[in-house]
């Protein structure tokens, strides 16, 4: 690009950097402050002396969290949830996106299936009816209550479906000529090509499962089954 | 048709697990919406006595409910506007940075708050906004008396609006930067030859070419007008600020789960879903008409 070397341009660039740096600091300094507080003595924290560097360095808060038992139990529930939930999500996303990537000529009823899934994105039964179903299916207090109700993330499925549609059709056609069944095509031919898209939707699932707290609160009767975020939420409410 | 089904049997079988799970956990609850028109009794389940529109009439006569509609609209309107203006401006400023690595660093830093749940964020906000927290610490250095960001009903909505924009603008920035990187550099070169400075280039080239993305993002957020952010507000509000901070979703939650008023809570949920559904429909049509964008 052609360089502009006027004084005004230099002033703008300088001001721009100031704004960008200030905004970025606004986004990370709260976390730095939090980290400093977590390593500081409680007296210094209540006196308001801690800014961005720990005062009276101590790891007491971390020792307390580690020995309480509840933290580690809920962390373990969260790990299970993220692993199981992401596996279930990815499995269903792939199994659904592949058939739906076909045109309605190659998959009878394709548009009906699509409508069936999209409706759930636009409209839902709401908090109470969904809760009643989870109760009826006997999932209350089980880790599956956090995984099965959202087993198919429709938005991620549409992303993957569009990705499959973007692949050259010849790849699949040559596999068909070689006598591959749809399942073999999916596993042996498409799956290796889907890695980048699966990484993206997998990340959505991991972050989503790790961050959700609300379903843990309503579907878990026993607080010992709370995932980490739900446990943290109860801590937050007890302040 | 039948031979076709046979040929495609494997494909249909692949869809089966998703169809079953979605049917159980998304479609059966639709049937559960009938309790919005019943006086729900846990012993009778969905066979509870019918009461027609009584639950709706009852809830609309509650002054506490009517104010939640206003609060919801107020907060979500400003969240939507700020959630578009801030990332657009930030993306434009970031676009002026020539160095790729520096640009990516800024982009990553502002994206960080996005990855944290509102539970964690609420913990952080309660900490930094408290009377002895870091924000009030800085305000006292400037000689400003301590501000009660979360306990003052007239300030609470703005604390929610600003913190929501703060948490979310990194994502919008990434979207707009992607759109900016798609603009043909030849246009800028031609503008320079015509004597246009950076400001004129921004007004006459960048903004018009960014417009479709801006329109698309605004139109898509229309469907969220009735979602003022349950996760955020539920974790940060308190009875002191119900007057300005209570939204439809938090009201439904308190009524439904905490007071076990299943029917009334479902009625409110249904009312909200119907309005949201209409808005989503309108926004999808608008996205297609105005920005020529087909979502499906």
UniProtKB/TrEMBL annotation, chain B:
Domain of life of the organism encoding this protein = Bacteria
Q: Does the keyword Thylakoid apply?
A: no
Keyword check for Heme? no
Instruction: Report the membrane topology from the UniProt record.
Output: Multi-pass membrane protein
Its BP terms in the Gene Ontology are:
transmembrane transport
Residue ranges occupied by any ABC transmembrane type-1 domain in the UniProt entry: 69-283
Which chain regions cross the lipid bilayer?
A: 12-37, 73-94, 106-126, 138-158, 165-183, 203-226, 264-287
Compartments where located: Cell membrane
Name the InterPro entries for this protein.
MetI-like (IPR000515), MetI-like_sf (IPR035906), UgpAE/MalFG_permease (IPR050809)
Checking PANTHER family in the record gives: BLL4140 PROTEIN
* Protein name per UniProt: Xylose ABC transporter, permease component
Q: Which organism is it from?
A: Paenibacillus pasadenensis
């Amino acid at each position: 690009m052609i360089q502009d070397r006027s004084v005004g341009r230099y002033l703008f660039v300088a001001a721009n950097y100031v704004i960008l740096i200030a905004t970025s600091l606004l986004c990370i300094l709260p976390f730095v402050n939090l980290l400093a507080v977590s390593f500081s003595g409680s007296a210094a924290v209540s006196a308001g002396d801690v800014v961005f560097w720990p005062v009276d360095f101590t790891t007491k808060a971390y020792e307390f969290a580690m020995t309480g038992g509840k933290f580690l139990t809920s962390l373990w529930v969260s790990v299970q949830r993220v692993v199981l939930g992401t596996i279930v999500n990815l499995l269903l996303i792939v199994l659904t996106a592949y058939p739906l990537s076909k045109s309605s000529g190659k998959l009878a009823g394709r548009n009906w299936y699509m409508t069936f899934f999209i409706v759930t994105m636009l409209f839902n039964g709401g908090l109470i009816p969904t809760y009643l179903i989870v109760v009826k299916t006997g999932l209350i207090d089980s880790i599956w209550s956090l995984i099965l109700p959202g087993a198919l993330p429709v938005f991620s499925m549409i992303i993957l479906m569009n990705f499959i549609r973007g692949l050259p059709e010849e790849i699949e056609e040559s596999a068909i000529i070689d006598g591959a069944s749809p399942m073999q095509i999916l596993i042996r031919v498409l799956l290796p090509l889907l890695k980048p898209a699966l990484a993206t939707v997998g990340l959505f699932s991991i972050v989503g499962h790790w961050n959700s707290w609300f379903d843990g609160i309503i579907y878990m009767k026993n607080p010992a089954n709370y995932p980490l975020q739900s446990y943290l939420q109860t801590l937050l409410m007890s302040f | 048709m039948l031979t076709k089904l046979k040929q495609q049997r494997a494909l249909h079988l692949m869809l089966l697990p998703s169809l079953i799970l979605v049917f159980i956990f998304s479609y059966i609850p639709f049937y559960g919406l009938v309790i919005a028109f019943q006086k729900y009794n846990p012993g009778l389940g969905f066979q509870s006595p019918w009461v027609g529109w009584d639950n709706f009439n009852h809830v609309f006569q509650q002054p506490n409910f009517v104010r939640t509609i206003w609060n919801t609209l107020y907060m979500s309107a400003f969240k939507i506007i700020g959630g578009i203006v801030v990332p657009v401006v930030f993306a434009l400023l970031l676009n002026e940075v020539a160095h790729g690595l520096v640009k990516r660093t800024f982009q990553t830093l502002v994206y960080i708050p996005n990855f944290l749940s509102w539970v964690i964020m609420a913990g952080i906000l309660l900490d930094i906004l408290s009377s002895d927290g870091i924000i009030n610490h800085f305000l006292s250095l400037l000689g400003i008396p301590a501000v009660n960001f979360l306990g003052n009903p007239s300030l609470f909505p703005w604390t929610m609006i600003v913190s929501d924009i703060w948490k979310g603008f990194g994502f919008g920035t990434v979207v707009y930067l992607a759109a900016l990187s798609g603009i043909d550099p030849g246009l800028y070169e031609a503008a320079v030859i015509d004597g246009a400075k950076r400001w004129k280039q921004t007004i006459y080239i960048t903004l018009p070419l960014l417009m479709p993305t801006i329109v698309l993002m605004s139109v898509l957020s229309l469907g969220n007008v009735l979602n003022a952010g349950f996760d955020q507000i539920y974790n940060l509000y308190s009875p002191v600020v119900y007057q300005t901070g209570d939204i439809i979703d938090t009201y439904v939650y308190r009524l439904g789960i905490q007071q076990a008023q299943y029917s009334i809570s479902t009625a409110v949920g249904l009312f909200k879903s119907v309005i949201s559904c209409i808005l989503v429909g309108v926004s999808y049509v608008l996205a297609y008409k105005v920005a020529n964008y087909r979502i499906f």
